[in-house]
Amino acid sequence: MNLEAFILGCGGMMPLPNRHLTSVLLRREGELFLFDGGEGTQVSLRRLNLRWKKISVIFVSHTHADHVTGIPGLLMLSSQVDRDDPLYIIGPPRIAEYIETSRRVLDMYINYEIIVREITEPGVVYEGEGFRVRAFPLRHTKPCYGYAFEEDGRPGEFHPEKADALGVPRGPLWSRLQAGETVRASGGADVHPEDVLGAPRSGRKFSFVTDSLGFPEIAPEVAGSDLFVCEGMFEQALLESAREKKHMTAEQAARIALAAQVKKLALIHYSPRYTEYDLKRVLKEAQDIFPPTVLSRDRMVFPIEYED
Ligand SMILES: [Zn+2]
Ligand SMILES: [Zn+2]
């Protein structure tokens, strides 16, 4: 089952000619999930040639303009295709007011159902087949949430040679063992799934954190992520300024990634003060702490693979 993250925009605060505002699209076997939607989101969706008019859920970190102004256009354009499934929009308090006001004032014609859910407490905010999405609180100048997209665990690897050795004939009994059932071998003995399966394997995990102070409680929320997309707005020399504005530095993001033992950290939401050249310096600061760190760029694609 394919799981990929597309960076639609990597900038913070204001869009730049080559840097749209923060937005990430997660695609899981054709189903689409959007995390924030700043200006330029539609342009990247189009350039990546994604079938984006059928996004299932939009997760919103917070209602600052650089994270939500791309959404009304998306809602309107999504009416160009027929869809039976509703579109969910999930975010902090006032997201409903923002969506309703936009629809009303902009006289948007929308031919599908939009269900807006405001997060009242941290925890699972959306569940689909084989995965769930958890929201957890961040610390910003207004209510802001991070998200963790987690797949269910998978059974351990099946060892055919063990099934053979225990006298289980190849065929439906093998499938039942793989599905977790105990079966009877040819000799009459019971064979349990754990006799022929390796240790259970975890599913994949994607986390999205932006616009927050760096604080240690983020680490357990994003622990073990295969891909951790996190704000790296400032270099360490601007730590004080980051604290005042309730943002974090790339180095702080790297420390969280290290504590959380994620597989890969992709920085996002760069301050417009940094040129592409400057960002190499910001990246270096993060890599000194957590080597598997990369700079996300508009329209970059990160495949998220099973670990084993
Ligand atoms: Zn922002
Ligand atoms: Zn903000």
Write the layout of secondary structure elements.
Blueprint: E1 3-9, E2 23-28, E3 31-35, H1 41-47, E4 55-59, H2 65-68, H3 71-77, E5 87-91, H4 95-105, E6 114-118, E7 123-128, E8 131-137, E9 145-151, H5 160-165, H6 172-178, E10 183-184, E11 190-191, H7 193-196, E12 205-209, H8 218-222, E13 227-231, H9 239-245, H10 250-260, E14 265-268, H11 276-289, E15 293-295, E16 301-303
Parallel strand pairs: 3-4, 4-5, 5-6, 12-13, 13-14, 14-15
Antiparallel strand pairs: 1-2, 1-16, 2-3, 7-8, 8-9, 9-12, 10-11
Bound molecules: zinc ion (2 copies).
Task: Describe the fold and architecture.
By secondary structure, the chain is of the alpha/beta class. It is built from 11 helices and 16 strands. It has helices spanning 41-47, 65-68, 71-77, 95-105, 160-165, 172-178, 193-196, 218-222, 239-245, 250-260, 276-289; strands spanning 3-9, 23-28, 31-35, 55-59, 87-91, 114-118, 123-128, 131-137, 145-151, 183-184, 190-191, 205-209, 227-231, 265-268, 293-295, 301-303. It is globular and about 70 Å long. The mean pLDDT is 95. One zinc ion binds at residues 12, 64, 66-67, 211, 269. One zinc ion binds next to loops.
